[in-house]
Protein backbone atom coordinates (compact mmCIF):
# COMPACT_ATOMS: atom_id res chain seq x y z
CA UNK A 1 0.00 0.00 0.00
CA UNK A 2 2.88 2.36 0.75
CA UNK A 3 4.24 2.02 -2.79
CA UNK A 4 0.76 2.63 -4.18
CA UNK A 5 0.34 5.81 -2.14
CA UNK A 6 3.83 6.94 -3.17
CA UNK A 7 2.93 6.40 -6.83
CA UNK A 8 -0.30 8.36 -6.47
CA UNK A 9 1.59 11.13 -4.73
CA UNK A 10 3.97 11.40 -7.67
CA UNK A 11 0.97 11.67 -9.99
CA UNK A 12 -0.47 14.43 -7.83
CA UNK A 13 2.62 16.64 -8.11
CA UNK A 14 3.13 15.98 -11.82
CA UNK A 15 2.11 18.88 -13.99
CA UNK A 16 1.08 22.42 -13.11
CA UNK A 17 -2.35 21.89 -11.57
CA UNK A 18 -1.27 21.82 -7.93
CA UNK A 19 0.72 25.05 -7.97
CA UNK A 20 -1.79 26.87 -10.18
CA UNK A 21 -4.50 26.07 -7.61
CA UNK A 22 -2.24 27.23 -4.79
CA UNK A 23 -1.47 30.49 -6.58
CA UNK A 24 -5.14 31.07 -7.37
CA UNK A 25 -6.12 30.42 -3.77
CA UNK A 26 -3.39 32.70 -2.47
CA UNK A 27 -4.45 35.47 -4.84
CA UNK A 28 -8.10 35.26 -3.78
CA UNK A 29 -7.18 35.22 -0.09
CA UNK A 30 -4.85 38.20 -0.55
CA UNK A 31 -7.66 40.19 -2.16
CA UNK A 32 -9.83 39.50 0.88
CA UNK A 33 -6.92 40.35 3.17
CA UNK A 34 -6.43 43.78 1.63
CA UNK A 35 -10.14 44.45 1.90
CA UNK A 36 -10.25 43.51 5.57
CA UNK A 37 -7.12 45.57 6.28
CA UNK A 38 -8.58 48.64 4.58
CA UNK A 39 -11.94 48.35 6.31
CA UNK A 40 -10.20 47.44 9.54
CA UNK A 41 -8.17 50.64 9.46
CA UNK A 42 -11.40 52.61 9.30
CA UNK A 43 -12.84 50.57 12.15
CA UNK A 44 -9.76 51.10 14.34
CA UNK A 45 -9.83 54.85 13.62
CA UNK A 46 -13.44 54.83 14.81
CA UNK A 47 -12.48 53.11 18.05
CA UNK A 48 -12.71 49.48 16.98
CA UNK A 49 -10.58 46.63 18.22
CA UNK A 50 -7.28 45.79 16.52
CA UNK A 51 -7.75 42.20 17.66
CA UNK A 52 -11.03 41.94 15.75
CA UNK A 53 -9.34 43.24 12.60
CA UNK A 54 -6.50 40.74 12.99
CA UNK A 55 -9.01 37.92 13.39
CA UNK A 56 -10.91 39.01 10.28
CA UNK A 57 -7.68 38.95 8.28
CA UNK A 58 -6.96 35.44 9.56
CA UNK A 59 -10.43 34.31 8.45
CA UNK A 60 -9.78 35.68 4.97
CA UNK A 61 -7.58 32.64 4.34
CA UNK A 62 -10.39 30.15 4.82
CA UNK A 63 -11.15 30.22 1.07
CA UNK A 64 -8.07 28.11 0.45
CA UNK A 65 -10.23 25.11 1.35
CA UNK A 66 -12.15 25.54 -1.93
CA UNK A 67 -8.94 25.12 -3.89
CA UNK A 68 -7.94 22.16 -1.73
CA UNK A 69 -11.23 20.48 -2.62
CA UNK A 70 -10.68 21.25 -6.31
CA UNK A 71 -7.24 19.63 -6.13
CA UNK A 72 -8.82 16.46 -4.73
CA UNK A 73 -11.46 16.36 -7.46
CA UNK A 74 -8.94 16.94 -10.24
CA UNK A 75 -6.61 14.27 -8.82
CA UNK A 76 -9.34 11.70 -9.43
CA UNK A 77 -11.21 12.94 -12.50
CA UNK A 78 -8.22 13.63 -14.69
CA UNK A 79 -7.63 9.87 -14.87
CA UNK A 80 -11.12 9.45 -16.28
CA UNK A 81 -10.42 12.25 -18.74
CA UNK A 82 -7.20 10.67 -19.97
CA UNK A 83 -8.57 7.11 -19.90
CA UNK A 84 -5.86 5.84 -17.53
CA UNK A 85 -8.12 4.93 -14.62
CA UNK A 86 -8.45 1.28 -15.70
CA UNK A 87 -4.67 0.90 -15.76
CA UNK A 88 -4.44 2.52 -12.33
CA UNK A 89 -6.91 -0.02 -10.94
CA UNK A 90 -4.86 -2.88 -12.38
CA UNK A 91 -1.67 -1.51 -10.87
CA UNK A 92 -3.39 -0.92 -7.53
CA UNK A 93 -4.70 -4.46 -7.33
CA UNK A 94 -8.31 -3.48 -6.66
CA UNK A 95 -10.68 -0.58 -6.95
CA UNK A 96 -10.92 -0.26 -3.18
CA UNK A 97 -7.16 0.08 -2.80
CA UNK A 98 -7.04 2.79 -5.46
CA UNK A 99 -9.90 4.65 -3.77
CA UNK A 100 -8.10 4.53 -0.43
CA UNK A 101 -4.76 5.59 -1.91
CA UNK A 102 -6.15 8.57 -3.81
CA UNK A 103 -8.15 9.68 -0.79
CA UNK A 104 -5.02 9.51 1.36
CA UNK A 105 -3.01 11.52 -1.19
CA UNK A 106 -5.82 14.07 -1.51
CA UNK A 107 -5.80 14.49 2.28
CA UNK A 108 -2.04 15.02 2.25
CA UNK A 109 -2.47 17.62 -0.49
CA UNK A 110 -5.12 19.27 1.65
CA UNK A 111 -2.61 19.48 4.49
CA UNK A 112 -0.19 21.25 2.14
CA UNK A 113 -2.89 23.75 1.15
CA UNK A 114 -3.76 24.19 4.82
CA UNK A 115 -0.16 24.83 5.87
CA UNK A 116 0.18 27.39 3.08
CA UNK A 117 -3.03 29.15 4.12
CA UNK A 118 -2.21 29.13 7.84
CA UNK A 119 1.37 30.29 7.28
CA UNK A 120 0.50 33.06 4.86
CA UNK A 121 -2.49 33.94 7.01
CA UNK A 122 -0.24 34.50 10.01
CA UNK A 123 2.06 36.71 7.92
CA UNK A 124 -0.93 38.62 6.59
CA UNK A 125 -2.18 39.22 10.12
CA UNK A 126 1.24 40.56 11.09
CA UNK A 127 1.86 42.87 8.13
CA UNK A 128 -1.39 43.67 6.28
CA UNK A 129 -2.11 46.66 8.49
CA UNK A 130 1.40 48.12 8.19
CA UNK A 131 0.64 50.35 5.15
CA UNK A 132 -2.09 52.00 7.23
CA UNK A 133 0.05 52.30 10.35
CA UNK A 134 -1.95 49.64 12.18
CA UNK A 135 -0.28 47.00 14.34
CA UNK A 136 -1.41 43.38 14.56
CA UNK A 137 -3.02 42.16 17.78
CA UNK A 138 -2.59 38.40 17.94
CA UNK A 139 -4.78 36.65 20.50
CA UNK A 140 -5.61 33.04 21.32
CA UNK A 141 -8.63 33.43 19.03
CA UNK A 142 -6.37 34.35 16.12
CA UNK A 143 -4.40 31.13 16.45
CA UNK A 144 -7.60 29.10 16.78
CA UNK A 145 -8.88 30.67 13.57
CA UNK A 146 -5.66 29.81 11.73
CA UNK A 147 -5.81 26.25 13.08
CA UNK A 148 -9.38 26.08 11.78
CA UNK A 149 -8.26 27.35 8.38
CA UNK A 150 -5.71 24.52 8.26
CA UNK A 151 -8.27 21.92 9.34
CA UNK A 152 -10.79 23.02 6.71
CA UNK A 153 -8.28 22.50 3.89
CA UNK A 154 -7.35 19.07 5.23
CA UNK A 155 -11.01 18.04 5.33
CA UNK A 156 -12.05 19.67 2.06
CA UNK A 157 -9.49 17.84 -0.10
CA UNK A 158 -10.83 14.29 0.47
CA UNK A 159 -14.35 15.68 0.05
CA UNK A 160 -13.36 16.88 -3.41
CA UNK A 161 -11.69 13.57 -4.24
CA UNK A 162 -14.74 11.55 -3.19
CA UNK A 163 -17.05 13.77 -5.25
CA UNK A 164 -14.65 13.21 -8.12
CA UNK A 165 -15.14 9.45 -7.81
CA UNK A 166 -18.91 9.94 -7.76
CA UNK A 167 -19.14 12.39 -10.68
CA UNK A 168 -16.19 11.07 -12.73
CA UNK A 169 -16.08 14.13 -15.00
CA UNK A 170 -13.58 16.90 -14.26
CA UNK A 171 -15.63 19.84 -15.47
CA UNK A 172 -18.75 18.61 -13.71
CA UNK A 173 -16.90 17.90 -10.46
CA UNK A 174 -15.23 21.32 -10.42
CA UNK A 175 -18.50 23.07 -11.26
CA UNK A 176 -20.33 21.11 -8.56
CA UNK A 177 -17.79 22.02 -5.87
CA UNK A 178 -17.78 25.70 -6.79
CA UNK A 179 -21.58 25.80 -6.93
CA UNK A 180 -22.02 24.06 -3.59
CA UNK A 181 -19.41 26.22 -1.88
CA UNK A 182 -20.27 29.64 -3.30
CA UNK A 183 -23.96 29.38 -4.23
CA UNK A 184 -25.98 26.52 -2.77
CA UNK A 185 -24.74 26.36 0.82
CA UNK A 186 -24.67 30.17 1.35
CA UNK A 187 -28.10 30.38 -0.29
CA UNK A 188 -29.57 27.78 2.02
CA UNK A 189 -27.96 29.56 4.97
CA UNK A 190 -29.68 32.80 3.99
CA UNK A 191 -33.06 31.11 3.63
CA UNK A 192 -32.95 28.51 6.41
CA UNK A 193 -29.97 29.12 8.73
CA UNK A 194 -30.95 26.49 11.29
CA UNK A 195 -30.97 23.75 8.66
CA UNK A 196 -27.93 25.11 6.80
CA UNK A 197 -25.65 24.77 9.82
CA UNK A 198 -25.42 21.04 9.09
CA UNK A 199 -24.22 21.55 5.51
CA UNK A 200 -20.53 20.80 5.01
CA UNK A 201 -19.44 24.28 3.93
CA UNK A 202 -21.41 25.98 6.69
CA UNK A 203 -20.10 23.51 9.27
CA UNK A 204 -16.61 24.53 8.19
CA UNK A 205 -17.56 28.10 9.10
CA UNK A 206 -17.71 26.90 12.70
CA UNK A 207 -14.29 25.28 12.37
CA UNK A 208 -12.58 28.50 11.29
CA UNK A 209 -14.65 30.33 13.93
CA UNK A 210 -16.75 32.59 11.77
CA UNK A 211 -18.77 35.19 13.63
CA UNK A 212 -22.03 34.49 11.79
CA UNK A 213 -25.00 33.48 13.96
CA UNK A 214 -26.72 30.08 13.81
CA UNK A 215 -23.53 28.04 13.55
CA UNK A 216 -22.88 24.72 15.23
CA UNK A 217 -20.48 24.44 18.17
CA UNK A 218 -17.09 23.34 16.88
CA UNK A 219 -17.31 19.70 18.11
CA UNK A 220 -20.72 19.29 16.44
CA UNK A 221 -19.39 20.93 13.30
CA UNK A 222 -16.61 18.33 13.10
CA UNK A 223 -19.25 15.62 13.60
CA UNK A 224 -21.34 17.04 10.73
CA UNK A 225 -18.29 17.18 8.45
CA UNK A 226 -17.40 13.60 9.39
CA UNK A 227 -20.93 12.57 8.48
CA UNK A 228 -20.68 14.13 5.04
CA UNK A 229 -17.28 12.54 4.41
CA UNK A 230 -18.50 9.15 5.57
CA UNK A 231 -21.56 9.34 3.32
CA UNK A 232 -19.41 10.42 0.37
CA UNK A 233 -16.95 7.57 1.06
CA UNK A 234 -19.66 4.91 1.00
CA UNK A 235 -21.30 6.43 -2.08
CA UNK A 236 -17.99 6.63 -3.93
CA UNK A 237 -17.02 3.08 -2.96
CA UNK A 238 -20.42 1.73 -3.95
CA UNK A 239 -20.41 3.42 -7.34
CA UNK A 240 -16.78 2.55 -8.00
CA UNK A 241 -17.29 -1.14 -7.31
CA UNK A 242 -20.63 -1.55 -9.11
CA UNK A 243 -20.20 0.60 -12.23
CA UNK A 244 -17.94 0.07 -15.20
CA UNK A 245 -14.57 1.63 -14.55
CA UNK A 246 -14.61 3.59 -17.83
Chart the SSEs and their pairings:
Blueprint: H1 2-12, H2 17-45, H3 50-59, H4 64-82, H5 85-92, H6 95-127, H7 140-167, H8 170-191, H9 193-196, H10 200-207, H11 218-242
Helix pairs in contact: 1-6, 2-3, 2-4, 2-6, 3-6, 3-7, 4-6, 4-7, 4-8, 6-7, 7-8, 7-11, 10-11
What does this structure look like?
By secondary structure, the protein is mostly helical. 80% of the residues lie in helices and 0% in strands. The longest helix has 33 residues, at 95-127. It is elongated. It starts with a helix and ends with a helix.
Overall 3D form: elongated
> How much of the polypeptide forms β-strand, as a percent range?
under 5%
The helicity comes to over 70%
**SSE string, helix = H, strand = E?**
HHHHHHHHHHH
Overall residue-averaged pLDDT value:
92
| Largest sheet, strands/sense/barrel | none
The helix tally amounts to: 11
Report low-confidence residues grouped into runs of 5 or more: none
Please report the distance between the alpha carbons of the first and last residues: 23 Å
Rg over CA atoms: 19 Å
Structural class: mainly alpha
| Oligomerization status of the protein chains | single chain
Number of β-strand runs: 0
Amino acid sequence: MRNLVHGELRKAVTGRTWWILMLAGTFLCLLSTFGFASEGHKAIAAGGSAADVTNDIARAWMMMFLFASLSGAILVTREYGTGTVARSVLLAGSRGRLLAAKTAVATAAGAAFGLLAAGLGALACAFAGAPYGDSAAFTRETWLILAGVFACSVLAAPWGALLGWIVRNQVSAVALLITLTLVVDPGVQALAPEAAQYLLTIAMSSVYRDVKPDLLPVPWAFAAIAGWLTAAWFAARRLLTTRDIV
